[in-house]
Amino acid sequence: MTLKNRSRQTINFNRNWKFIREDIIGAERKQFSDEGWDTVCLPHTPAIESVHVDLHFQGICWYRKHFTVYEEDAGKKIVVEFEAAMQHADVWVNGTYKLNHKGGFLPFTVDITDDVNLDGPNVVAVRLDNRNSGIIPPGRPLESLDFSYFGGLYRNVRLHITEKLHVTDAVYAGKAAGGGTFVRYADVSKDSATVEVQTHVLNEHNAAKTVKVVTTLLDQEGRHVVSAESSSETVYAGEEQTFWQALKVTKPRLWHPNIPYLYTLHTQVIGDGHTEDEVYTRIGIRTIAFSKGGGFAINGERLVIRGTNRHQQFPYIGNAASNNAHYRDARKLKEAGFNFVRLGHYPQAPAFLDACDELGLMVAEPVPGWQYCEEGEFQDLVRQNIRDMIRRDRNRPSVIMWEVSLNETYHRRIGATDEFFHECHLIAHEEYPGDQMFTCGDTIGRTNPSYVNFDVPYTLWNDENLTRPLEEVLPDKGGFDREYGDYEFGGHESTSRVSRGVGEQKLLLQAWNYQWSLNRNRGNRWSLGDASWVGIDHNRGCYPRLSECGALDTFRLPKYVYYFYQSQRNPEIVHEHAESGPMVFIANEWSERTSPAKVVVYSNCEGVELFVNGVSVGVQLPDQGPDTEYGERITGYEVDYWLTDEEQHKGKDGSVQGKTDAGDMKVFPHDGGNCRNLAHAPFTFTGVTYVPGELSAIARIGGKEAAQCAVRTPLEPKDLSIRIDKSGKELAADGADFVFVYAEIKDVNGTVVPSADNEVLFDIEGPAVIVGANPARAEAGIAAVLLQSRETPGEIMVRAYSTGLKPTAVKFASV
Question: Ranges for the Glycosyl hydrolases family 2 sugar binding domain (predicted)?
C-alpha cells in the first residue's frame, strides 16, 4: 500500500555526503572546501574492516552535505532527522553550531528553519567521535566490550518540511508519555477493540489557529475502516495541544506472530479549515500479558516465546546496513522458526523493527548498556535513552518488553544500585502508562528484586541451570531466559562457538548444546520463554575472533543448529512472506567413515524414513529418550557471570587457562533423549552403514509425504555455482543496499564439497561493487562476498573463478 502525503515532505537525505576520516579544523564553516573529500551514500561506515576485526576504527571523522531549500518552502518548518550517529556528534548548519548529541543508537533532530538560505546553497556539517567514552552508554572501552559498535552516519538521515502547524516528533518533543502520535488499545477481543489515539500538535505560526484532528484507520489494503473527528480547539501562537480520540473497531484483525496484520492510522491536522499536516502511523492491534501461572499471552491466548538474540552488524561495513539488509536478517530469523528477537544490547535500526512488525517477530528492546553503570552523566544519559527508545518505538506491535537493566550490570559495578534500576523501571512506566508496559531485566546482583520490580525478571544463570529468580521474593512472576546455549558450555571457549567449516561432529555438538538447553528451559513450568545466544555470528571488541555461536555465520549462511530451530516451528502455520510449513533436514555430510553412522534428522513432521541409495534403512518416530545430565564439563574458564572479565579468564588457582574444545568434554550428544519438552524432537538413526552415494529422508504427516531432503557423498571439486541472497528484497539501486553473493564449490553431481577451501575471485560488471575481501577463501565449500549497489539501476553480471574449477556467471538486476 502506497500512501501519498500531500502536506509534509520527507526527503531522503542519504545521498551525496562528503566524508573524511580525520579531524579537520574549520570543516564546520559553510565556505570550507571539501572538494577532495570522498563522496558517500548513507548508511556509511568510516572504515571497511576485516571479517575478524576486534578493535575497529576509533577516532574522529567529518560528514558534510550540500543541499538546497526552495523558495516555495518559505515560512515552513524544516528539520533534519538523524536515525543515529556513532557516537558523539556535533552538528553545524551554514556554520552555525546547532547541536551536541551523545549516544550512538537513538535518533536526534536538528531544527534548521532559521538557518537555511532559500534557493541558495546550504551545508550541514557533522563531526563524529567514536572513541571510548565512559559517559556515553554502553560506556565500556571497546577493548573490553563484548560487541562492536563501529562508527559513522550508519543509519538514515531525512529532511522534513512541514507547515508551522504540525504533529510533533515524539523524541524531539521530549514529553513524558506525549509528543507525536501515541496509540494504545482497550477492550481488545476478536469481536471488537478500541484504538485510543493521542496526537500532539504544535502551532509555530505567529497567530492562533482553530484546530481539529481527523483520524482514520485504514486496513492493509488502504481501505477505510473507521474515523474519528475531534472538537475544534484554539491553539495560540507558539503553543501546543494534545488531542485524544477513540476509534471503535468491529471484528478487528489482531496482530499475532503467526498472522502479523497491520493497520495504518491516517492523522490529519486541520487548521482554520485547511489540512496543514498529515501523518501515517502503522499499527497492530493486540494485547499482551505476562504471569507465572498463565505464562505469556497475546490476545488472550498463551504463546511460548521462542527466540534468539541479534547484533546489528555485518562483515566489512559494521553497522552501516541498508533497510533491505535489516529486512533480510529478520526474514532469516523468522524462517529459522523464531517468533522473538532480543536486540542485544541496544535499540536497533527502525528498518529492522519495521521488518519485525511485518513478519511477526516479537521484540525485547534494551537500553544501551553492557557491564557498566557509572554515576553522573552516564546514568543521566541512560535515563534519557529509556525515554527516547520508548518514544521512538511505543506504537510498534512487535515490541513486547523494554529492557531497562543495562546488560549484565550487576552489584560489583559502580552505581549499579537497586535505587537506580527501580528508577529506570518507573521511567518506563511513566513514558508508557497502562497495563501494556512490561519492563524486563536482570535480577542477579539486586539486593531487593521486589523493590526494583521489573515486570518480567530474567532468570538467574549459574553453572548448572537457569533458575526462576528468587521464589520467596517474586512468587507471582515468571522468568525469561534472555540468553542460553553458549557461555555455559565453556565460557570464552564454548563448544557452541564454531564456524561452518569445523566439520560434522562439532556442528552436531553445537546443535546438541542448544537442544539440551532448550529442552531444559521448556521443562521449567514458570518459564515465559527464552532467547538463544545468538542468532548470527558477530565481532567482539574484547576478543580477536568472531563470536561464532550463531545459528547463522556472519555471511548469513546456516549451521546445523539453524535447522534444529527450524524444526521447532509449527508445520501447520504458513506465513505469507517467509518460508514456513513442514521441513526436514539431514545433519550429515555423508562423507567416508569406517564405522556405522549415527544420523540425526531434524523435522517438524510425525515420522521420517531414511534411505541409503534408495533403499530404506528404517522409519523413525521422534526421539523419546529420557532427560540426562549434559556430561562432565571440563572448561578452560570459570564460567560465572558474577566474575569480572579478568577473573573469567583465570582458573580457580589464578593461573590463565588454555583453550579447550569438544574433545575435552565427556558428552554424549544425540543419545535419543533430552527432547521430551521440545515442540518437535529430532529423529536419531543409529547403526546406519556407510555406503557412498545418496542419503535421503522423507518426512510424513498423517502418513503422507510432507517434506524431503537428500545429501550425497561429496566427490572432487569440479564446478562453481553462484547464488544471490535476496531474501525477499531485490537489490535497491540506492548506493547503500547490498546482498551476499555465494560461490558454491560443487562436484560432478552438484553437491557442495564441504572440505573445499579454494580461493575464489569475483568479477563484477554493471552498477555494483564488491566491498571487502576479493578474492575470498571458501569455508565448507562456499566463498562469500558482499556486493553493494550503485545509485543507478541496471543489469549486473557476476562471475566467479577458481584455479582448477569451471568458472561460472550469473545475471541479475538492481531496481
Answer: 58-160
